[in-house]
Structure formats: C-alpha cells, structure tokens
Amino acid sequence: MTRVVIIGHESAGFNAARQAKIVDRSAKITVIERRTYPLYHPCDIPSAISGEIALHSLIEDIRPPHVELHLGSDAEEINLDRKIVKTKELKSGRTKTVSYDSLILATGGRPFRPPIPGIDLDGVYEVKTVEDANAIINATKKAKKAVVVGGGAIGVETSVALRRRGLEVTLIEMVPHILPSALDKDMSELVAEKLRKEGVRVLCGQTLDEIAGGRSVNSVLSGGVEYPVDMVVMATGTRPETELAENAGLEVGTTGGIKVDQYLRTSDPNIFAAGDCAETRNIITGEPTLSQTASVAMKMGRIAGGNAVGWKEKFDGTLNTLVTSISGLVIGSTGITTKKAEEARIEVISARIRTLNKPAYHPEATPIYVKLIVKSDDRRLVGGQVIGMTGVAERVNLLSLAVQNGMHVDELANMEYCYMPAVAATVEPLTMAAEAVLRKL
C-alpha cells in the first residue's frame, strides 16, 4: 500500500488526492490543510466583494472520497531522510508526524507585498482569502474612496466590484497598460475604456510610491500626485509558497517556484510539486515560468497525484490561458503576447479584427475583437486574444488547443465552422482573423 501525503487542499491538492485514488485504489491518501474548511473559490472573490454572490457561497464542503483530510493542521517540517512530515494542529497546538512513500507539495502562493512605505497601515487589504474578502466588504461600509494597486485580472475585477459598492476607485498599474501578461496594448485599451465607462480612474505606467496616514490610511502618493483615500487594495499578484520546501533542502528555480521535471518530481524523486508553488515552463518559449490559474493547478495536481502512485504522465508546460470579465465584457487570452515574443526573440506577425458575433441585422449582435499572433517563419499560432460580450471563453479554449498542438494559421483559416443567425456569425471570427494574418504573410 502506497502512502501519499499531500500538503495543501485547493485546486492542485484536491485533484492530486482524487487522481491518486483513481489510479491506485489501495493507496492511503492523507491531506494536510491549514484552513478549517475544505475548499473555496478565490477567483470569485471580486464577485463577493461586489455583492453579486454571497461570500459564504465561495466555501464548499467537497472532499475526495476515501481520503483522510486534516483541516486546521499546518505542515511544519519535512524530513527527507526519514520520509516524514511534522504537523501541528492550529487549535490545540498538538504535533504529530505522518510518514509517506510519496509526498505532494500543493502549498499554493502568498500575496506579494511590495516594500512600499505605509503598507502595514490599517486600511490596506489583500485579495486572496475569504477572510480578506470579508474585511474588504466591511471596510466598504464606511469608505468612500479606494485605490486598487495592480492591473491584472484580480485588480481589474476588484476595481469594478468596489465601484458597485458605490466607492470612487482609482486603479494603479506600474506598466504602460493593464492586463500586461495577457493582452497587447491595443487590446488592453478596450478593457481600460470599459473601466473608465464604469467610473474607474485608470493610471498606467505609475507606481504606488507611498501610503500615508496616522494609524489608518488617509492618502496615497503616485506619480507625484497625492490622492485622498479611505482604503487600499493590493492586487499585486502572488509568490510561490516555498518556505517548507526550501527548509527541507528542495531546489527552487529561477522564478522562485519549486523546481520540477516533466513528471512534476522535485529534486527529491519521492516528492512532487503542483500548482502555484511549482515552477513550470512556457510551452512556446521553453522558458521557466509560473502559472497562477486554477485550471493549470488542477491539471498539474491530477498529473502529480497519478505519478505519485506509479503513473508516468508528463506535464508539458503551460500557455497560461486566461479569461476574466467586467460588467459583461469578457476578456480572454492564450499563449504569448507580441511583447513576450519580442523578449523571447521570436519573430511574429499579428493581426486584429473587429466583427460581430451575429449577423448585423440581428438584435443581439455585439462586437467581438480577435487578435492572433503567428510565427513568421513556420506560420504556427503562438498566441490569441479575444474580447467581446459572448463566445469569448469558447474561442480562447479552441485557440489554446490550436496553439498547444502547433496548428498553422492556414489550417485555422480553413476550419469548418457552424452558422445560424441567432447563434453564430456568418463568418467565424477566428477564421476572419486568420485570413487577416495570411494577408500580411
């Protein structure tokens, strides 16, 4: 009987436990999780902040069958030689050890707190946990003005959520445009325009230089301008939670994530890592990268769980496929942007089209934008970005499959698609974008 211990029970840990039991029903699976509840959905925290959904609905009591789940328990130490994990019950303080044959680290990530003067003042919040969301919701009952720092998906979504609570909101992003890891600047501007229409002040190419106040926040300084605020929300991303792994002597990669091979094994062959804590590789560039999406964490967890009990499945890397939404506008992307291609010295050609998701005469027709990024030499798709009101996630998923399988833009242009006025456009927007690229080629 294989003894598998999993540290962490979110997307990666949950799927690791589930898959290990599927592959080897006789395996003894023990999961250690410091939270007191089994699962929650961090991606939907902005929806709870806005009031669209109830905060308690983010928590689910879902447990893999025939798995021993220890909630409210913290993993304190790993002994590689003895193959044991020392744990501590947070409520009672009791400690014990758990032996393993295979260990899976699914410790996730922790919010990044940049070294900004005043960041520890009252009124500065993070967007990571249910408890964070509850604190933000309570703060909005008295606050009138807020600053959100970070123009990634969570920062953009949180900005709109706070506007729906009636606050004046300023979004600060240090690079020249929002959603920089997912979108090129021309596509990003469509999102910024939507934010402005929602009443969010968008400041790009600026840093948050200081948070000021006595005990609590009362203003921030950015770009030489002081803005009076009642609360600051830091949406500056997360960093891999690797302290446990590093203390055990496991190797950490250049990105700060736990280094793993194609089978998600760490520098110790009996230990695997999956999800936000692990370093993986970009499928297009081959470079080390991190992925902080639930969908990739679930995939990595499934593979790590299976491999921990004898599977031989490879994880080839990530495209960091993403989808987000603000006030009905859906934004999706997969693969690399033109800027990322330039940094990786990959010569590309791109084209962007604007069309309608249905025939123009149809009352429900709305604009949809598609941008494709293609390698100049072999005409392979390496990236795609889609923005519209409907059909975005489905098209991004299709583009992800196309990029992952090395599809040529010619093949996408020749794709057979369906058509029915009430459901689909006369010409599929993806083929229209592919034809635009071909004209440039």
Structural commentary:
The protein has helices at 11-23, 45-50, 130-140, 153-164, 185-197, 243-247, 294-307, 338-343, 392-404, 409-413, 429-440, and strands spanning 3-7, 28-33, 39-40, 59-60, 68-71, 73-79, 84-89, 95-99, 102-105, 109-111, 124-126, 145-149, 168-173, 200-204, 208-213, 217-222, 225-228, 231-234, 238-240, 258-259, 271-273, 278-281, 288-289, 322-326, 329-335, 348-356, 367-375, 381-388. The chain has 441 residues and is α/β, with parallel strands linked by helices. It has three domains: 3-110 and 238-307, 3-Layer(bba) Sandwich (FAD/NAD(P)-binding domain); 113-234, 3-Layer(bba) Sandwich (FAD/NAD(P)-binding domain), CATH 3.50.50.60; 328-440, FAD/NAD-linked reductase, C-terminal dimerisation domain (Enolase-like, domain 1, 2-Layer Sandwich). Helix 4 links the parallel strand 12 (145-149) and strand 13. Helix 1 (11-23) runs parallel beside helix 7.
Please provide a brief summary of the model.
With 441 residues, the protein is of the alpha/beta class.
Helix-strand layout with pairing:
Layout: E1 3-7, H1 11-23, E2 28-33, E3 39-40, H2 45-50, E4 59-60, E5 68-71, E6 73-79, E7 84-89, E8 95-99, E9 102-105, E10 109-111, E11 124-126, H3 130-140, E12 145-149, H4 153-164, E13 168-173, H5 185-197, E14 200-204, E15 208-213, E16 217-222, E17 225-228, E18 231-234, E19 238-240, H6 243-247, E20 258-259, E21 271-273, E22 278-281, E23 288-289, H7 294-307, E24 322-326, E25 329-335, H8 338-343, E26 348-356, E27 367-375, E28 381-388, H9 392-404, H10 409-413, H11 429-440
Parallel strand pairs: 1-2, 1-9, 2-5, 9-21, 11-18, 12-13, 12-18, 13-14, 20-22
Antiparallel strand pairs: 3-4, 6-7, 7-8, 10-19, 15-16, 16-17, 22-23, 24-25, 25-28, 26-27, 27-28
Helix pairs in contact: 1-7
